[in-house]
Amino acid sequence: VELLKTAVRIADDLGAEAVSFWAGRKPDDIDDQTAWSRLIAGCEQVLELAVERDVTLAFEPEPGMLVETISDWERLASHLPDPHFRTTLDIGHCLVAETDSIERCVRRVSGSLANVQIEDMNRGVHEHLNFGDGEVDFQSALGALVAMDYRGLVSVELSRHSHTAHTVVPGAIEFLRSVEAAL
C-alpha cells in the first residue's frame, strides 16, 4: 500500500495518465474472503490519496493472481465506486483468462478503461510474444478501441523482450502502423 501511495505521489508530480497495478497472488495460507477483504481495504487507502491528488488508478486483471479476469475486476470495482478507480486491459490476457473475444472484452470495460497494454499471446498460455508470433487479432482489438473512441495510452509490453528492444521496438512500430493503415 505504501509503495502504491508513493507511486500516486510520483504520478501526480509527473502528470502521469495513471498508476497501473495488480493484486498479486493469494498466499496459500490465506482464505479467499480474507484476501479479498485485504485487497479492498488496501485499494481504498490508495484510492483515497488518488482522489486527493486527482490521479487515476488503473487496476489490471492478471492471469494467476487474485484478480485475474474482468469479472474479478468488476467485483473489486463494485467496492470502489469512484471514477478514479479504473482498469488496465492487457489485450493478450484476454486470450489467457477470458472466454469472450478480445473485441467483446474491450467493449465490456469501455466505460472504465484507463490504460491498454498490447502484445501477442496464444490462447491459454500466459507468455508475452512479439507481434505476429501469437493468436491475437490486432485489427479487431485495436478496431474496438477506435470504435469506442479510446484516447488513452496503448503501450507495447516487452516484459520478456526488453533486452532486444533495439530490434523489437522498430518491428512493433512497423506492425502497428500496418494495423492502423488497415483500420
Give the key terms.
globular, alpha/beta, 5-stranded parallel sheet
Can you walk me through this structure?
This protein is α/β, with parallel strands linked by helices and 183 residues long. Helix content is 47%, strand content 16%. Strands 1-2-3-4-7 form a five-stranded parallel sheet. A two-stranded antiparallel sheet has the order 5-6. Helix 1 (2-14) packs parallel to helix 2 (32-53) and helix 5 (102-109) packs parallel to helix 6 (138-147). The longest helix is centred in the N-terminal third of the chain and has 22 residues, at 32-53. The relative contact order is 0.12.
State mean pLDDT (0 to 100 scale).
Answer: 95
**Uncertain runs with pLDDT below 50, 5 residues or more?**
none
Number of strands: 7
Strand content: 15-25%
Report the total helices: 7
Largest sheet: 5 strands, parallel
Helix and strand pattern: HEHEHEHHEEEHEH
Output the radius of gyration.
17 Å
How do the strands of the widest beta sheet line up side by side? Answer: 1-2-3-4-7
The helix-and-strand class reads: alpha/beta
Helix content: 40-55%
Distance between the termini: 41 Å
**Shape designation:** globular
